[in-house]
Amino acid sequence: MASISMALLCFFASFAFLPFLSAMPKQTYIVHVKHQDKPSSYVTHHDWYSSQLKSLSDSDSDSSLLYTYTDAYHGFAASLDADQAESLRRSESVIGVYEDTVYNLHTTRTPEFLGLEIESGHNTQVLDQASHDVIIGVLDTGVWPESKSFDDTGLPEIPTRWRGQCESGSDFKPTLCNKKLIGARSFSKGFHTASGGSISKKPKEAESPRDLDGHGTHTASTAAGSNVANASLLGYASGTARGMATQARIGIYKVCWSIGCFGSDILAGMDRAISDGVDVLSLSLGGGSAPYYRDTIAIGAFTAVEKGIFVSCSAGNGGPVRASLANVAPWIMTVGAGTLDRDFPAFASLGNKKRFTGVSLYSGKGMGNKPVGLVYSKGNNGTGNLCLPGSLEPDFVRGKVVVCDRGVNARVEKGSIVRGAGGIAMILANTAESGEELVADSHLLPAVAVGKKVGDLIREYVRSDPNPTAVLSFGGTVLDVRPSPVVAAFSSRGPNLVTPQILKPDVIGPGVNILAAWSDAVGPTGLDTDTRKTQFNIMSGTSMSCPHISGLAALLKAVHPTWSPSAIKSALMTTAYTQDNTKSPLRDAAGGGFSNPLAHGAGHVDPHKALDPGLVYDISTNDYISFLCSLDYPIDRVQTIVKRPNVTCSRKFSNPGQLNYPSFSILFGNKRVVRYSRVLTNVGAPGSVYDVAVSAPTSVGVTVKPTKLVFRNVGEKQRYTVTFVAKKDAAITPRPEFGSIVWSNSQYQVKSPVAFAWTQL
């Protein structure tokens, strides 16, 4: 006993002043601990943490200790009051104590659009067979296991290395899992603490992996759903629904609940997914930008990538606002959203004989052919134009078609409010923020969504005509839409506020009007008043584009099992395309003009080219550590992320942009010259020779040495150096400019986008 007391004396000395009975409110804190300081007298870190908490209070320490983290983080999550948290901060064995953070969800034809239905140089049967051994872990709102998208017909036995399991709950039996859905767990302790309960009280939401929201079922089936024939949303987008990697396995980690996704639960889900043995982690959620040592997802993802797990995250839906990105750590694949070549046209015919085209997924009884009155009003409180709750006057809108401005509240909620006030139909008109982006919704009443330009014309018509009228009609599903893809206006944009020298997002993928499986517990709009049931739903968001890339990464992992996560990321980035199906540069839905790498990253993913990229930019764990050290974080902050107590930062990059990243972000600041080196690894044929081609704005000179790379062997590495010079006589612009560096031969094009900025945002 004496040795235990001596070992813990330093740790507990600071707790003596604390009253044992505290009336202060409690909340969840994540505590980062010096892992190596555990006294040998404790068998496990869990035992040690329990003792630490026992010293703070006379209450049951196990009720305060929410999670013990082992892989994704060194430390624990606990329910503490402010004084207890402050006492822990004073301990020499504690590196940091942080309040729990709330993260948000970033809410048939896709495989064809990506070319996955087209024969290529890769045998589809071989690809499917290899995918049997790949496991995708999805952190989201859970799963509706009865969905046909999780049918396991034809799949072989579960890989023996899998250590996951199916948890039971009041509404979820372990037998619901199968050889497709091989694991399902839930993590709710942070949520319960935040919502006013505790883990010892009966929860308001069932503690189970069942999806009562629909989002998690949608994302999981997008990544690796089985083939389902005759899938549609109430007749829209009819066809075969399938995930990107139809033969891959799925492990579900429910970390999101009715009021959000809490960092302590996310970290617990990542921790368990890593130990369960997933190959890919897919997270369609995020928060704002924060230093990496305060970013729960970034910290957990670092360990995952170190262990060979590819991590794909949504970029966020904060676009078209600049610098609105989430999940910007360089070891994470940050995914923006673009459109498909499929649309759902709907029409607004006005009394002035003009007919405008928009989109809709309305599937109920139509309006007929008789025009009815059209209204648009700010209302008494100035919010009637937005159709916010309580903003519409029933006497004004009853029996009318109501024009609602997009923004503030959910698009489908606006329709519900119009209907509740007596309106019979809605025209949802974009404002400047959404530009010309059209997102289709399964509205509860006849509704058409239109872009800003059309919206302005309709608004002006209502204002100027003494008796404005409209009738709406619906055109079903249309394919081969041009141009496509187009960058979604909502897709979050760079620059990267945490490290401007790393260009983000990395790529875009399909994220607008995506058909995938849905939960039977909720209608397609997600509104409480929506009693409709559907096995599939159409949704939009970077939440939808992220699992596309997660599934594609699983395919690359199947074909190239020895590739690192950074090699897979490189393959997806350097083969991405930047021209649409009209051979024009990618356009941006926000304004209709050309897009740029701050919106689309390296471009839109091209799965077949990514399977055989020729060259890759590989990054080791030590490279990432050198990158972190170059940020000049205190050493304990670096250790928070890398979980290595012996890290000293004796080796660090002179500039964070020295990381061997597949893209370039040049921040001149007060310098005229920026010089970076990169290393390429040959994953193509032996004896490959590549020549470089550079494009840059006239204000910048770019020199690459050498201009030719010769790879005699597979796996051989070659280094090149790029010097970027801001020309003296060139006018400095506050706007970013762009270029590219391309290594190519007759078979391959290995392209890296370059962004140039003269001042930091």
Automatic annotation (TrEMBL):
Database matches in SUPFAM superfamilies: Protease propeptides/inhibitors, Subtilisin-like
Keywords noted in UniProt: Apoplast, Glycoprotein, Hydrolase, Protease, Secreted, Serine protease, Signal, Zymogen
Cellular localization per UniProt: Secreted, Extracellular space, Apoplast
Ranges for domain PA: 385-457
Active-site positions on this chain: D140, H215, S543
PROSITE patterns the record matches: SUBTILASE, SUBTILASE_SER
GO biological process, alphabetically ordered: proteolysis; response to symbiotic bacterium; response to symbiotic fungus; system development
Any one Gene Ontology molecular-function term assigned to this protein's record: serine-type endopeptidase activity
Region entry Disordered, spans: 191-222
Domain Peptidase S8/S53: 132-582
UniProt feature, compositional bias: Basic and acidic residues: 202-216
Domain Subtilisin-like protease fibronectin type-III: 658-755
Alphabetical list of InterPro entries matching this protein: PA_domain, Peptidase_S8/S53_dom, Peptidase_S8/S53_dom_sf, Peptidase_S8_Ser-AS, Peptidase_S8_subtilisin-rel, Peptidases_S8_3, S8pro/Inhibitor_I9, S8pro/Inhibitor_I9_sf
Keyword rRNA-binding in record: no
Domain Inhibitor I9 span(s) in chain numbering: 28-106
Major localisation: secreted
Region forming the signal peptide: 1-23
Classification via CDD domains: PA_subtilisin_like, Peptidases_S8_3
GO cellular component annotations of the record: apoplast
Function comment: Required for arbuscular mycorrhiza (AM) development during AM symbiosis with AM fungi (e.g. Glomeromycota intraradices).
Family membership noted in the UniProt record: Belongs to the peptidase S8 family.
Protein name in UniProt: Subtilisin-like protease
Organism listed in the record: Fagus sylvatica
Taxonomic lineage of the native organism: Eukaryota, Viridiplantae, Streptophyta, Embryophyta, Tracheophyta
